[in-house]
Amino acid sequence: MKTQPTASHFIDGQYVEDTSGEEIPVIYPATGEVIATVYSATPAIVEQALAAAHAAEKEWAAMTGTERGRILRRAAQIMRERNHDLSVLETYDTGKPYQETSVVDATSGADSLEYFGGLAAAITGEHIQLGEDFVYTRREPLGLCVGIGAWNYPTQIACWKGAPALACGNTMVFKPSETTPLCALKVAEILHEAGAPAGVYNVIQGYGPVGASLITDSRVDKVSLTGSVPTGKKVYAAAAEGIRHVTMELGGKSPLVIFDDADIENAVSGAILGNFYSSGQVCSNGTRVFVQKGIKEAFLTRLAERLQGVKLGDPQDPEVNFGPMVSEKQLGIVEGYIAKGIAEGARLVCGGKRPDMAGFFLEPTVFADVTDDMTIAREEIFGPVMSVLDFDTEEEALARANDTEFGLSAGVFTRDLSRAHRMAAGFEAGTCYINTYNDAPVEAPFGGSKQSGVGRENSKAAIEHYSQIKGVYVRTGDLEAPF
Ligand SMILES: NC(=O)C1=CN([C@@H]2O[C@H](COP(=O)(O)OP(=O)(O)OC[C@H]3O[C@@H](n4cnc5c(N)ncnc54)[C@H](O)[C@@H]3O)[C@@H](O)[C@H]2O)C=CC1
Ligand SMILES: CCCCCC(=O)O
């Protein structure tokens, strides 16, 4: 697999290189080796991308939804045909096991292109009859959208932002995370191959300042960020300068509540999916696992048994189910939290160490006897660290689950249907799960409340965030005035 891209950027329907920009080494997390190099966008490259997207707006918006949808669906088809190569590249970019990337990342991206490609023709206004007068509404594009991605799902994020944006008739300049720059270029290449006119979807590389320079440009009408809460606050503030539309998909410290009557095998599966999938680098993870006291030891015992099934190793090996952290920096951050958990008195049940191998690997780690005030229970770790907390009653569990500045996701395992829906109704979170965790079908809205974000990605809800309604009042008779 060639990991060195044709060039660093994809602008106006072609690859563009400018090596005068700051060098961004692409490091394979499984070995620590540099596997490619891209260059941060210079102001000239930023200008070239914004000018291309701005120039493409008129033609793309003038297409019918059916015509735009056809191109998005064609792009989805190409992604599915190339799923293997796109999955291998995603593994090189992120270190996530091929066992995961081959069924999640490009697939989820193709799903979003297919879904919004199908919706595009149905994005319409309405007619409101008012006696002899009437109002009709037009659902119009916002214009030029900027997408800014995080490093944990580079293909998916590039598509989850691009698909609804393009379906609504907008153009996009997308900047992937500097940590995982490779995959978004393929998304841009495939959209162009599928028939998107030059300039409709552009990808440029760069660190935070490049992202910042995109937001404040007068041609930009919307910004959609996936990233940390601190970055979200900066981006939101910068977008406010131009009263720009925003979507904020930020961090979390989500609760997973497991009651005595839960099916333990399923609850352990939920805890594993909500803490160790993608080596724990998932924003919506249920990293505060509240276990009712009656089943705490049974849960911990079964969890430890199931963790014996972890096969840590070369993520390109289809047999491997647990990969490295995305970077040495992230590995160090997570190790710092593990040390903090031990120092503050949490019980280390398993994991916590780097295995003796190259790359940024860390064992899946479980803490028990965690209390709400501990750092590992309050702060987002973004790594394979599960905190298990005990609780007695439903009321106590819900209150503690909600006692956080975040509000991204929340999950509950119980056989009591009334209690399950009571908990879902009570959770202060945008995305909830009952007897499951982290399912993310494109048909369902995804996003957070409180500090975890603004807006929703996927589902019909995304159309609201990538289009605007114009109301037109039509008077059919004469118009009187007081003078
Ligand atoms: N809610 C969600 O769907 C997700 C949220 N995240 C969050 O993202 C974090 C991990 O990803 P990172 O890439 O480390 O996040 P990050 O916040 O460091 O960077 C995210 C993106 O923002 C860009 N950026 C940084 N400063 C900027 C600025 N001032 N203006 C414009 N752009 C700027 C970065 O270059 C990067 O592309 C975690 O906190 C995680 O919770 C990650 C994935 C999904
Ligand atoms: C549940 C998986 C959704 C992916 C959200 C993220 O980008 O972390």
From TrEMBL:
<keyword id="KW-0630">Potassium</keyword>
<dbReference type="InterPro" id="IPR016162">
    <property type="entry name" value="Ald_DH_N"/>
</dbReference>
<comment type="similarity">
    <text>Belongs to the aldehyde dehydrogenase family.</text>
</comment>
<dbReference type="InterPro" id="IPR029510">
    <property type="entry name" value="Ald_DH_CS_GLU"/>
</dbReference>
<dbReference type="InterPro" id="IPR016163">
    <property type="entry name" value="Ald_DH_C"/>
</dbReference>
<dbReference type="GO" id="GO:0008802">
    <property type="term" value="F:betaine-aldehyde dehydrogenase (NAD+) activity"/>
</dbReference>
<keyword id="KW-0520">NAD</keyword>
<dbReference type="InterPro" id="IPR016161">
    <property type="entry name" value="Ald_DH/histidinol_DH"/>
</dbReference>
<dbReference type="GO" id="GO:0046872">
    <property type="term" value="F:metal ion binding"/>
</dbReference>
<dbReference type="InterPro" id="IPR015590">
    <property type="entry name" value="Aldehyde_DH_dom"/>
</dbReference>
<keyword id="KW-0560">Oxidoreductase</keyword>
<dbReference type="GO" id="GO:0019285">
    <property type="term" value="P:glycine betaine biosynthetic process from choline"/>
</dbReference>
<feature type="domain" description="Aldehyde dehydrogenase">
    <location>
        <begin position="15"/>
        <end position="471"/>
    </location>
</feature>
<keyword id="KW-0479">Metal-binding</keyword>
<dbReference type="InterPro" id="IPR011264">
    <property type="entry name" value="BADH"/>
</dbReference>
<keyword id="KW-0558">Oxidation</keyword>
<dbReference type="Pfam" id="PF00171">
    <property type="entry name" value="Aldedh"/>
</dbReference>
<protein>
    <recommendedName>
        <fullName>Betaine-aldehyde dehydrogenase</fullName>
        <ecNumber>1.2.1.8</ecNumber>
    </recommendedName>
</protein>
<feature type="active site">
    <location>
        <position position="249"/>
    </location>
</feature>
<dbReference type="InterPro" id="IPR016160">
    <property type="entry name" value="Ald_DH_CS_CYS"/>
</dbReference>
